[in-house]
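Complex record, three chains
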Amino acid sequence: MIGKPSVEAEIPFGVRLGAVLAFVVMLLPVVIVVLAGLNAGEYLTFPPQGLSLRWVIGFLSSQSLRTSYLLSLSIAFVVMLLSTSLGTMAALFLTRVAFPGRSLMRAYFLAPLMLPGLVLGLALYIFYIVTNVGLARTLQGMVIGHVLVTVPYVIGTVSAALYNFDVSLEDAARSLGAGPVRAFRAITLPSISPGIMAGSIFAFIVSFGQFDISLFLSTPNITPLPIALYNSLRYRFEPTAAAAGVFAIVLVVLSMLLTNRIANFARFSGIKFS
Amino acid sequence: MAVAFNRLWFLVLPAFAIFLFFFVIPVLALLAIAFNPAKSGVVLFQPTLTLANFARWFSTSLYYNAAITSITVAVVVVVVTLILAYPLAYLVAKTTNPARTSLYMILILVAMQLDLVIRMYGLMVLLGDNGLINASLLQAHLIGQPLPLMYNGFGTVVGLVQLSLPFMVLSLIGIIRVIDPVFEEAARSLGGSRWATFWNVTVPLSMPGVLAGSLVVFALAISSYVVPALMGGWRVIVMPINIYQQISEQGNWQFGATIAVILFAMSLSAVYVYHRWTEKRIGGLL
Amino acid sequence: MERDEQRNSIKRVSRRHALRTVGAAAVGLAAAAALATSAAASPLQATPEQHPATQDVHWDGQVFDASGAVLNLGDWPGFWHDMQDLNLINQFQKDFNCTVQYDSSWPWFPKFAASGPQNPPLDVTNWNMPELFKTARTGDYFVPLDELKANVSNSADLWPFAFQNGYGITYLFSVLGYAYRTDLVDPPPTKFADFWDDRFKGKRATYITSNTIQMNFFMVASKVFGSNEMDMDAGFDAMQRAMPMKISDFTGNMQTLLERGEAVLGLQEDGEPFAQIDKGIPLGWMYWTERQPILDQTKTVSRWSQPLQKKLAYALIQRSTDPAYQEANGAQLYERPTNRKARIADNLANKGVVNTADAANQLWIPPLDWYLDNEQAISERVDRIFGA
């Protein structure tokens, strides 16, 4: 801090205060839920009647919830891979190619976010049943539904990264004899990777927490976690859903501390739709 | 440009085709029944056409008021979320210490890990008539009656803002980070205060992120059912609540589709207007 | 400048033109999509009599080998699911050599409607009456009740109200009434009309209009304050006079409202507060005497299921009406039996629940057909009252 003032020291006080306020709004309910999930008592309450891991253990030892958890995890993973590739490609096209209907096409890719998930889920369910394409109540059918509402996020984040990317760098590589694919992989991909990563995080989180669309598309015998948790809260108010949240939070923190992903956050890219 | 178009069209084709087959066709097929007479238990398009469902919607205050409520709530949520998210995004973007950046990012991601319904329970513990806020204010004799912090529009907005904040923050961080410090330094060296520099240089340069984040939050807010249902105490009747009632409970899918058509048209026009407006305001950036 | 304007106007025209083209394309696509789906959905219409699945199927009551067949069951999720596995399904699968596909993605009505009667998504379905009525009124979905009874021999031991819905067999139920906080309500409520006491203003709670408990509450209020349960105006007036109140979307949410003291008096089915009392939450319970509506668990068999699945379905319902199964569900889920020979589990018996003809005769099944005929009007009006 001595000598040249760092960028951090330049942050106005009002902005710092606002940031603290935002953290409070974002995290206070989370703290309450975590404490409720660590409740030692018989039912969901706050303040907790003593702390224990009984509900977290209960969540982990329930066969049906474990299956639901793994199902949602695998779906989110597949959706993340699909949406990230589809969205990145579409974003490349939308930022690189100017054509008359470009803003319409951007709206086209944003549209699934504007409809309540219940409507989209029901529409897909009826479509699968009526066309008899073998997607009704299958995992593939549900994955397609999730892809529709996650691709927009990827397009948004990758567009933002491309917006900041200097195309002349790629042209330079091309002029030095690199083929288009090689130039893309060597020059463009590394510099838009933060955008791609941000998009895949959105895709994963939106799919993992998806309730409305899954409601009509879920398969018999296994229920995705958000539906299992919602139903457990609708019928019995046990700390299970809170305990599931505790587990998810621990998992996120651990996985981020263990992998080197954090370093990449320094270059995290935002979202851009236009 | 035509050459480039021909060369690169394959990039957009897979996503375009998936959206066409699994979004446009199924959704249009479902929404088309809005033009059929209401009949319980019928989900498929019938040849008989009518505008009766639309007439009913436009003549029933319960339904057209919901449209006003939906738009108002979504706009308020976008504005409040933006005001709250911007300073946080700025702080994270300008933090150079990697450990601290990681801590901030972990906290933001942690906020996205909780199931929606249990999150609303957390908010009820805070904002309820017997919630922590009211209980402490009553204890301190600052108020005589519990403040109405939930079961109304305020609670709904708080719930939606809590849900939307991480999305907005993550949309802004990247944009703010890549603003060339040269601009800010120049403003400072010309004698601008830190605040003036923030307001006159940083904020305008980050408008693309503001626009994108606002669209995401608008979409989240206008299509939400759970938050208004649990935080609004049934006093905040928004269009998704109407749709949910018609589709999931009453089985009047024609009328449910009608409300969905109107909501969809409204959302898309709102986005269009927003685009046009921002284009005019900050056209040079887009 | 002029040039610019000109260019702008061209741009505007072309934009309008583009919008019009897109609009026309969208309408065309919608029409095509709609026609394609409706065409695909009108296959050969066979009558039940011609369809192989609806030929006479009789189950003789004996365990048989289904050689790995799959039975599609629609039933509630979560803890309920775990208990059904434990009390019913695991043993059933072993005995009959079949697989029960447990589908808990409620609601069922849209699923039946999307598939049509001849292609049922579920073979056996567990319902609460309002949704069952809605589904059954729109198509020939279920095996007629007489045929169902003839194939389920336990029917002879069930109380008559178990068949009063007219479509399926009610095998478990709970009774509706008021739950209240014993530490925050003094004196406790003693009659239906106490809900409207001034002391509960803002601290009483009911449900959204689509909830079964709210439907029953509305009809009982119409009866108590008006001429009969169909006296809508008395019902609306009662809802109006109860405002302000808390509106819950589901029973789990009501439990939370009561536990947190956000509401001190709320509508419930007795199983929920009984379970909460046993967990140590200070709750009391009051039955309505004017009418005793129930929250039913009713199972139906799909008429167009295949013969083998139908036999399995009958067998599953036979076991769901078995006294031992019903007692086990009482102990774990606080549900009451409909079989007159079933014993009441201790956790219910110690709260005064009995299984007698007198008790069964007091139960009331509301005029749901009337309610559903008027549902849109009632919901719109009550929603407006709640939202004011």
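Note: DSSP finds twelve helices and no strands in chain A.
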